[in-house]
């Protein structure tokens, strides 16, 4: 979708040093906005002219206030969060400080500084907690907080509610009110994504991707980074008066609009890098027990050795249980139209960065990893299978 050039406005992106935040910043810069990227980590790429990076931590109110000094920000895109996957999911205190405390700080400064528009990057997980959802929509209630299997999802739910409840609150430095909305994206992918895809590729290259799990008919969703960029820009526009503030106080699901089996989605990546797609399929309950065991081991040993869990319970649910959502509200109110993408550009990106199987390498080279995985799964079954009955898995 083409966007018209905007009069020079200033926007601020929290989490702007990350993959999606930086991509959004570059897109806005190309459309004529002056962009401030605010993050605790610098972007991995060179910062284009017209974009300013400010180092800061959203947990610290003073850092947030400094990011707004001497500029008239017209929209904040609040992307920064912590605890989405892997061992990050197990650091409850930091998750709470960033996702809830950080959001409180951003909202407070926005009201004080007179920022009229606020777009929050939420997640499917505020609704989903392991239950089957087919073509759900925004009328679905939030998952009760105690039912969330991980603290990231719980805190994102709390933060989203805070953002939407802040809609309509008075601004201090200018007439009018703060307009807010929340976007709930599916799993993000695209060339250069650094959170999920490298972890998957590392498993593939180390021979750990030797099985799939769950019902082969289970369906989940993904969203290409450029589709998500489009949705955020449209959401900000839909908070303006000339759009009737249609998005004010509203949540929206965002995806590519193509439900697919999680493992089949990644088949082109596996085979494109020269590896064999696994033929073994294991029960979801077994993998959940293994993930539970892994989390317990991390809880005990993590303070001495902060290893990366193979899978967490939430990741098992998110990849193995059907959950996908309608895009009708985003289409109707934002004008969102998902563009078609596939994993080919992702495959080419990894190949260009030295990944991919060398010609002539043998399947037997990963025999040690095969044995290790089988052993760990066996331990999980023997140790935790009774617990699975209690958990009604």
UniProtKB/TrEMBL annotation:
<protein>
    <submittedName>
        <fullName>Short chain dehydrogenase/reductase family 42E, member 1</fullName>
    </submittedName>
</protein>
<dbReference type="InterPro" id="IPR002225">
    <property type="entry name" value="3Beta_OHSteriod_DH/Estase"/>
</dbReference>
<feature type="domain" description="3-beta hydroxysteroid dehydrogenase/isomerase">
    <location>
        <begin position="12"/>
        <end position="284"/>
    </location>
</feature>
<dbReference type="InterPro" id="IPR050177">
    <property type="entry name" value="Lipid_A_modif_metabolic_enz"/>
</dbReference>
<dbReference type="InterPro" id="IPR036291">
    <property type="entry name" value="NAD(P)-bd_dom_sf"/>
</dbReference>
<feature type="transmembrane region" description="Helical">
    <location>
        <begin position="367"/>
        <end position="387"/>
    </location>
</feature>
<comment type="similarity">
    <text>Belongs to the 3-beta-HSD family.</text>
</comment>
<dbReference type="Pfam" id="PF01073">
    <property type="entry name" value="3Beta_HSD"/>
</dbReference>
<keyword id="KW-1133">Transmembrane helix</keyword>
<keyword id="KW-0520">NAD</keyword>
<keyword id="KW-0812">Transmembrane</keyword>
<keyword id="KW-0472">Membrane</keyword>
<feature type="transmembrane region" description="Helical">
    <location>
        <begin position="285"/>
        <end position="305"/>
    </location>
</feature>
<dbReference type="GO" id="GO:0016616">
    <property type="term" value="F:oxidoreductase activity, acting on the CH-OH group of donors, NAD or NADP as acceptor"/>
</dbReference>
<dbReference type="GO" id="GO:0006694">
    <property type="term" value="P:steroid biosynthetic process"/>
</dbReference>
<keyword id="KW-0560">Oxidoreductase</keyword>
């Amino acid at each position: 979708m083409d966007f018209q050039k905007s009069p020079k406005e200033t926007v601020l992106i929290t989490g702007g040093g990350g993959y999606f935040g930086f991509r959004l910043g570059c897109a806005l810069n190309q459309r004529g906005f002056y962009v401030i990227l605010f993050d605790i980590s610098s972007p991995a790429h060179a910062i284009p002219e017209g974009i300013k990076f400010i180092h800061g931590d959203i947990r610290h109110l003073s850092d947030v206030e400094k990011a707004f000094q001497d500029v008239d920000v017209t929209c904040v895109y609040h992307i920064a969060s912590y605890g989405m996957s892997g061992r990050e999911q197990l650091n409850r205190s930091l998750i709470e400080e960033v996702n809830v405390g950080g959001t409180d700080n951003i909202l407070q400064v926005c009201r004080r500084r007179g920022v009229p528009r606020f777009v929050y990057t939420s997640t499917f997980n505020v609704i989903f907690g392991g239950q089957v959802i087919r073509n759900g929509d925004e009328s679905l209630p939030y998952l009760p907080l105690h039912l969330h299997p991980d603290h990231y999802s719980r805190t994102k739910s709390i933060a989203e509610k805070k953002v939407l409840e802040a809609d309509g609150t008075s601004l201090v430095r200018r007439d009018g009110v703060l307009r807010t909305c929340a976007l709930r994206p599916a799993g993000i992918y695209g060339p250069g994504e650094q959170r999920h895809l490298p972890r998957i590729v590392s498993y593939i290259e180390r021979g750990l991707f030797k099985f799939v799990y769950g019902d082969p008919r289970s369906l989940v969703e993904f969203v290409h980074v450029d589709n998500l960029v489009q949705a955020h820009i449209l959401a900000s526009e839909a908070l303006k008066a000339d759009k009737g503030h249609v998005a004010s106080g509203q949540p929206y699901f965002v995806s590519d609009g193509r439900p697919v089996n999680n493992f089949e989605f990644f088949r082109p990546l596996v085979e494109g890098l020269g590896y064999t797609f696994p033929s073994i399929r294991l029960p979801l309950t077994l993998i959940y027990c293994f993930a539970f065991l892994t989390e317990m081991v991390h809880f005990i040993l993590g303070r001495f050795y902060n290893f990366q869990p193979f899978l967490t319970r939430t990741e098992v649910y998110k990849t193995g249980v059907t959950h996908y959502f309608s895009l009708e509200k985003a289409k109707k109110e934002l004008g969102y139209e998902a563009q078609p993408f596939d994993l080919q550009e992702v495959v080419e990106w990894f190949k260009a960065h030295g990944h991919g199987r060398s010609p002539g390498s043998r399947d037997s080279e990963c025999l040690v990893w095969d044995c290790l995985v089988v052993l760990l799964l066996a331990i999980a079954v023997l140790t935790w299978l009774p617990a699975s009955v209690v958990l009604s898995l």
